[in-house]
Amino acid sequence: MSRSQILRAEQVRRADTRSRQTPWRQLRQVWLTPILALSAVTAVVLFGVFLIDWYVNRPEALRDLGPLDLLFHYDLETLQNALGNLTQTVVAVLGIVTTVVAIVVQLAATRYTPRVTELFFREKTNFVVFGFFLVTCVLALWVSLAVGNGFLPRVSVAAAVILVTASLLLMFPYFIYVFDFLDPEKIVIRIQVKAFNATEKLRPERIEQAQELMLTSIEQLADIALTATSQQDKIISCRAVDALRVLAVRYTRAKADLPLDWFDVGGQLNENPDFQALSAEAVRDLVLKQRWVEWTVLRKYQTIYNEALGTSSDMCYLIGINTRSLGEAALAADTQGVGLVVKFFNTYLRATLNRGDVRTAYNVLHQYRLLVESAVTAGKDSLVAEIASYFRYYGQVAHTQGLGFVTETTAYDLASICEAAHRARLPCAPGLLDELLELDKEAETEAQEKTLRGVRKAQARLATYFLIAKDEASARRIYSDMEHERPERLASIRDELLAVRSKDFWEVIDRGANFDYMSERRRAKLTEFFGWFPNVDPHTPGAETSRVAAPAHASDE
Q1: 3-class state of residue 229 by DSSP
Q2: In 3D, which of 366, 392, 401, 408 has the Cα closest to residue 493?
Q3: Angle at 386 between CA 302 and CA 369, to 5 degrees
Q4: How far apart are CA 526 and CA 532, in angstroms?
Q5: How far is Cα 318 from Cα 308, in angstroms, rounded to an integer?
Q6: Number of H helices and number of E strands within the chain?
Q7: Per-residue pLDDT tens digits for 401-437
């Protein structure tokens, strides 16, 4: 397992742990601790002040009463007035709580997703708290009416006083609970838990309800991500997008134990617009390949990606990272879901090239290449060959659209894939070299000529790898493809590559290293490779060009 896969697995484990916080921990932090603290402070203040009055200001007629007897020594007329005030107090508390909660929930629903309101009012705690306030209010009202005509219901009065006191003490912890509930991270985790529960202890008679719960949870997380992205709230949008990844990765690991009926798209699931928009054949394909959940998550990723494209490159990059994680999870579980991931990666690239967003294409290609390298490690020969053909295709599309740096990036990434496949001795390795050599067509403009220089550099670097690996035949294939280039052009490409002596690019970049950097061993092989060209001037040590070459931002060293 690669280092990136280990880190991703650890992130999934931590997110899963956060999503499974025990109810007792929440009960202690949100309810018990504040209530006990407030009760203790209230009791200390109340009885402290009362004991002073009992000791100093107690009348002679009540000298024989202890402090508790005096505290609960009721007078009917005074008690009737007090109970009426108690009723007004608890009604006022209920009104304050209702007003604050309504405003806060509405603000949260506007900022995150309208589904917050649904989540809030489905929470049992809210019914319990509001029910407690209502019962206290009704009890205080009827007890106040019952007192009179010489009748003193001591137990009822004590119960009303205690419940009203509890209502006042409960108000502050309940506000803590509401704000804690509406914390965006807690909302995301709560939705995650709902989705996790959908596939646990799944009973045949509840499959449709579980499917609907899973689908609803995915849509809620996507809604939060979309709203936060449109409002440029990166923290919340990233949390929601990561939550979808954690959900999909965990589901991929557990799907082998699910019943076959779970993978059928029917009932309420079939009425969802996302599935109704598909053709009958596409729906059958999702059912046969058992991947409707993965398709739904990736479809939501596509929607968020399109929303962020051109306005939030970091969000597009994060979606690329998470999509790669889903592909790696599918490879680890040996499922067919990786094919779906490849299709969506291609969709991202198409949308990005149509928008002309070079930086996003550069980052997404990096994640796509890492997925291919994971496929190489897993020995997926046909998959690697298939994706390499897509790299070549989108590199050529970028070339025709004048996005030269994207073509250059594709060339360097394809060269890295060639090296990885060659080291793994995959049968597709020769075919991958063919894809790289197909990238460079005859240039028609000066800008395209510059682009093809980058492609030639990537091919020359790959030739140095083949020479080190003692595969001269593959290096000769690259030589045959380049031998008709102008000698002065080949010499300048060689000298520009030899001039790069730092792994790091001179600016802060996403990939963090220089495409054109080569180790000393590879630099020696580069000189040997260009020595095959008869009309190219021999390289003179120390005579490398000092001019700055076209930016090349990453290395596969």
Answers
A1: helix
A2: 408
A3: 60
A4: 10
A5: 11
A6: 24, 0
A7: 989 889 999 999 999 999 999 999 999 999 999 999 9
Structure token digits, residue 222: 């996507």
Full DSSP string of 437-455: HHS-PPP-SHHHHHHHHHH
For residue 347, CA distances in Å to 209, 303, 367, 521 come to: 31, 11, 14, 39
Place of tokens 């049968």: 427
Let me know: does 58 contact 67? Beta carbons within 8 Å. no
Q: What count of other Cβ atoms lies within 10 Å of the Cβ of residue 80?
A: 14
| Bridge partners, 148 (sequence order) | 151
User: Which residue is it, tokens 């790289």?
Assistant: 436
Please give the structure tokens belonging to residue 11: 């992130």
**CB atoms < 10 A from the CB of 416, how many?**
24
Q: What is the pLDDT of residues 143-187, one digit of tens each?
A: 777 776 666 677 787 788 888 888 888 888 888 888 888 888 888
User: Count of CB atoms within 10 A of residue 148's CB?
Assistant: 12
Place of tokens 């939550």: 243
Amino acid at 538: P
CA 183-125-45 angle, 5° bins: 90
Closest CA to 421 of 432, 437, 409: 432
- 213 near 198, Cβ under 8 Å? yes
User: Which DSSP letter does residue 513 get?
Assistant: S
d(CA 305, CA 313): 9
Distance CA 408, CA 365 (A): 11
Determine the 3-state secondary structure of 151 from DSSP.
strand
- d(Cα 496, Cα 159) in Å, to the nearest integer? 88
At 420, list the tokens: 């990885």
CA distance linking residue 99 with residue 258, whole number of Å = 45
Cα separations (Å) of 554 from 196, 471, 495? Answer: 39, 25, 19
8 A C-beta contact, residue 428 and residue 421: yes
The secondary structure of 380-424 as a DSSP string is: -HHHHHHHHHHHHHHHHHHHHTT-HHHHHHHHHHHHHHHHHHHHT
Residues 6+ apart with CB under 8 A from 300: 218, 219, 221, 222, 225, 244
**Structure tokens belonging to residue 262:** 């779970």
- Cβ neighbors of 284 (< 8 A, separation 6 or more) are none
**pLDDT > 90? residue 342:** yes
